[in-house]
Design brief:
The complex is a heterodimer of chains A (391) and B (373).
Chain A: E1 2-3, E2 8-13, E3 35-41, E4 44-50, H1 83-86, H2 88-97, E5 102-106, H3 120-140, E6 144-148, H4 156-168, E7 173-175, H5 193-202, E8 206-209, H6 228-237, H7 242-252, H8 255-258, E9 264-267, H9 273-287, H10 299-306, E10 307-311, H11 321-324, E11 329-331, H12 345-352, H13 358-372, E12 378-379
Parallel strand pairs in A: 1-12, 2-5, 5-6, 6-7, 7-8, 8-9, 9-10, 10-11
Antiparallel strand pairs in A: 3-4
Helix pairs in contact in A: 4-5, 7-9
Chain B: E1 8-13, H1 20-24, H2 27-30, E2 36-40, E3 43-48, E4 51-54, H3 79-82, H4 84-94, E5 98-102, H5 119-138, E6 144-145, E7 148-149, H6 155-168, E8 173-174, H7 194-203, E9 207-210, H8 227-240, H9 242-251, H10 254-257, E10 263-266, H11 273-286, H12 298-305, E11 306-310, H13 319-322, E12 327-329, H14 343-350, H15 356-370
Parallel strand pairs in B: 1-5, 5-6, 7-8, 8-9, 9-10, 10-11, 11-12
Antiparallel strand pairs in B: 2-3, 3-4
Helix pairs in contact in B: 6-7
The chains are: A alpha/beta (391), B alpha/beta (373).
Chain lengths: 391, 373
């Protein structure tokens, strides 16, 4: 691909057309196929996604960044969803407007958790349809870097095979739940080794997004006294803990020893988690002489070698990029979600990267992502990641 | 105050001896329900009210020949864990002037008696600990700074015990930060707990929220993991679980309602703090919380009332944002994560490139003013 602007988003969200699943899944699934359905609230029609025959729930599309004023607004019916969110041809215009070369695609409603219904075959069918939708995006443009979602309930060898199939079709990474769905083995259990092995061999990074499903594994009990906005602030910002709750499992369970080329990305969890992980894991490793317990590699070496975090607002945090690892940080847009600065991403970047050298800017804004996602690219000399460039 | 070494450790743990509760609780009234050591298959563990209290007799890994193995019988427990005079020698060796004390059997965060179903037994166990600590430790040397534990509910009983303990000489209040995880009590963010926060502010004693109050705040290790690795993993996920606690106390307005309350996040470590506060402020702006009756942003609340506790982190990268006056130091003696016996070397590493004025604030001045030493 061509790097025209000098900016890759390591965390954006695809959006789905109402027919994406019905047109791809066998009619034997009938009403269980994820589809847009309506309810009424105070005499008004509200659309949501019905899955496995359940009542419609959630947003029909999570795309406040392209809904216009007042910000933030979410569409309440399908007709309000702008095609620039879900039509891969249209969406290229949004990338050009915001001057983003490429974007990594995480889920959006109807989401990526089809295991919830406890039906192995149904989950598998949904997962394949989902992965096929995004493989089609990739056929439209190599500026899309889709992430595979997993059929968790299937045999781990089948899970690994689905990763292989999707990667062959153009996917460039895998999205993983930090806490495996209920009833399945622990994230660090040997059960999942075939999955990590496949990701390592295919050279596709695995991803943990936001709170990464940890609310059932590590979280404070929710308080009912918050307003909606307060609850949003309180819960979103505690995603800062996600890398520090997950990375130690990869280190101390020996996964980074066993899979030294497995790349792990933390999206929408901030960049400061790595500061803590580097210091704390090294301290315990040294203090407890854990090389005598089979962990030959100093944890900070494994972290620098394999772990990546994304930034979007962290003007203070980015000052510590040397400590975190300049090669371990990527930019993220979170387009078209509420945290996105679209269409003014570059304005926020100038604020956050004030005083950062041209060479570090290039790494943070796109060069690290080229490496993590193994992208072959030609870079236009006029790319705007350099602060001296005029735009 | 006599300062020979220039270090006040704000988080160390006493080891309760086997006869602590047996000596102080009525055998007639409580019988076998009294906290005591029980031996099975050559291994001892603490029991209370028919339930396990602590797996093993003690936590003293830093003093053991092999740090990955805790003592399994009381005879193996090193005296510096439980004898005040031996502890003083260890403090001199590590260069520690004063040591602020937390429990072990009663829970690192003072949480263990909250699981007792009988509130009278809970109170009796708590009071015995508080009396013992003042008499046996604070009575042995003014270099020990005792902090009380509390019954978590109801608040009037909590407040009464805080008042009693502070009158006896306790200098801080150890409160398990998430009582609703321990027993069926209201959420800690609610106004029901205001009398407790008000009492701490009124008596001018810090509220100490030690990491590890509830396992629900940490992602548990895979069950097939070797014990030494599982313990190391736990030691890493524990301090940073303070993110949840700090978030709760900031966004729920506890600090805004009690501006004189000072909150110590013991065993929190440091390096996550800056990012968390920057994010909390960013989110606060993004969600327009200034219009929802908060007169301070999260980082402003923090810089008015909170303290993080470092022991292995480098200070210099984070100090400009957090403020040197909000960072405390400890040795975490005698836990496996402790810097013992490398405390001085660790300090040299962690404080490099920090001006001496700020170094003194973190190593002792902040603690001296917080605890009135």
């Amino acid at each position: 691909m061509e790097i025209k602007f000098g900016l890759i988003s390591a965390d954006s969200h695809a959006a789905f057309h109402r027919d994406d699943f019905t047109s791809r899944m066998s009619s034997k699934w009938g009403e269980r196929i994820p589809h847009v359905a309506s309810t009424e609230e105070d005499g008004k029609r509200i659309d949501g996604w019905s899955i496995y025959g359940g009542p419609p729930r959630g947003d029909v599309c999570n795309c406040p960044a392209v809904m216009g004023d007042p910000f933030p607004t979410w569409p309440s019916v399908w007709e309000e969803v702008p095609s620039i969110a879900y039509d891969p041809k249209e969406r290229l215009k949004a990338l050009d407007i915001d001057r983003v070369d490429a974007e990594v695609l995480f889920p959006n409603p109807p989401g990526g958790s089809y295991y919830e219904y406890g039906d192995v075959d149904f989950e598998f069918a949904c997962v394949q349809a989902y992965n096929d939708v995004l493989a089609d995006w990739r056929r439209v443009s190599d500026r899309y870097l889709p992430l595979v979602i997993l059929p968790y309930l299937s045999d781990p060898k089948v899970v690994a095979k689905e990763v292989e199939r999707a990667v062959t079709n153009g996917h460039r990474g895998v999205n993983v739940a930090g806490k495996m769905p209920k009833g399945l083995p622990h994230l660090a259990a040997p059960h999942w080794y075939p999955l990590w092995d496949a990701c390592q061999e295919l050279n596709v990074p695995i991803h943990f997004h936001g709170s990464a499903n940890l609310d059932t594994a590590a979280s404070a009990k929710k308080w009912s006294g918050y307003t909606v906005r307060q609850a949003h602030s309180a819960s979103t910002s505690t995603s800062a803990v996600t890398p520090a709750q997950i990375i130690p499992h990869f280190i101390f369970s020996g996964l980074t020893e066993r899979f030294p080329r497995l790349k792990i990305v933390f999206a929408e969890a901030g960049i400061g988690g790595l500061n803590y992980v580097l210091a704390a894991c090294d301290h315990e490793w040294q203090n407890r002489r854990l090389w005598t317990e089979g962990l030959a590699t100093r944890p900070s070496e494994a972290v620098r070698r394999q772990m990546y975090v994304n930034f979007w607002f962290e003007a203070e945090g980015i000052k510590l990029r040397e400590d975190i690892g300049v090669g371990n940080i990527m930019w993220e847009a979170d387009f078209p979600h509420v945290a996105s600065y679209y269409p003014r991403s570059w304005e926020s970047i100038e604020r956050v990267l004030k005083g950062v050298s041209a060479s570090d800017r290039r790494k943070l804004l796109y060069a690290n992502a080229l490496g993590v996602y193994d992208i072959e690219a030609t870079v236009r000399p006029t790319e705007t990641s350099s602060p001296s460039a005029s735009f | 105050m006599k300062l020979r070494h220039g270090l006040i450790s704000v988080d160390d743990h006493v080891q309760e001896p086997p006869d602590l509760w047996a000596k102080r609780l009525s055998k007639n009234r409580w019988g076998e329900r009294i906290p005591h050591l029980e031996r099975a298959d050559g291994v001892e563990r603490w029991m209370v009210d028919g339930n396990p209290l602590l797996d093993g007799p003690a936590r003293a890994a830093a003093l053991m020949a092999d740090r990955n193995h805790e003592p399994t019988r009381w005879e193996e427990v090193p005296p510096a864990a439980y004898l005040p005079n031996e502890r003083l020698k260890a403090m001199d060796e590590a260069g520690v002037d004063y040591s602020v004390l937390y429990p072990t059997v009663a829970g690192f965060a003072g949480q263990n008696f909250a699981g007792i179903k009988d509130p009278e037994l809970e109170l009796a166990c708590v009071q015995a600990y508080n009396d013992w600590l003042v008499e046996e430790w604070a009575g042995a040397s003014e270099r020990f700074i005792p902090q009380c534990i509390v019954p978590i509910w109801p608040p009037e009983v909590t407040v009464a015990e805080i008042e009693r303990a502070v009158a006896k000489g306790h200098r801080g209040v150890i409160f398990p930060a998430v009582p609703m995880d321990l027993r069926d009590v209201p959420h800690v963010a609610g106004p029901e707990y205001d009398p407790i926060w008000a009492a701490c502010a009124r008596l001018n004693v810090p509220l100490c929220l030690h990491a590890g109050a509830s396992p629900k705040l940490q992602y548990a290790p895979y069950s097939g993991l070797a014990p030494a690795l599982a313990q190391a993993l736990d030691a890493v996920t524990k301090p940073v679980s303070s993110v949840f606690i700090l978030g709760l106390y900031l966004f729920s307005r506890v600090l805004l309602r009690h501006p004189k309350l000072r909150v110590v996040l013991a065993e929190s470590a440091l390096s996550w703090g800056m990012l968390y506060l920057e994010w909390a402020d960013h989110q606060f702006d993004h969600d327009g919380l200034a219009r929802e009756g908060y007169e301070l942003t999260p980082s402003e609340m923090f810089r008015r009332q909170c303290y993080l506790n470092a022991w292995f982190d480098e200070i210099a990268p984070f100090e400009p944002y957090l403020g040197a006056e909000h960072i405390l130091w400890s040795t975490n003696f005698p836990l496996a994560t402790s810097t013992w016996p490398q405390t001085r070397q660790t300090i040299e590493h962690c404080f490099k490139s920090l001006p001496s004025e700020k170094r003194e604030m973190v190593l002792w001045k902040n603690a001296a003013s917080l605890y009135g030493i």
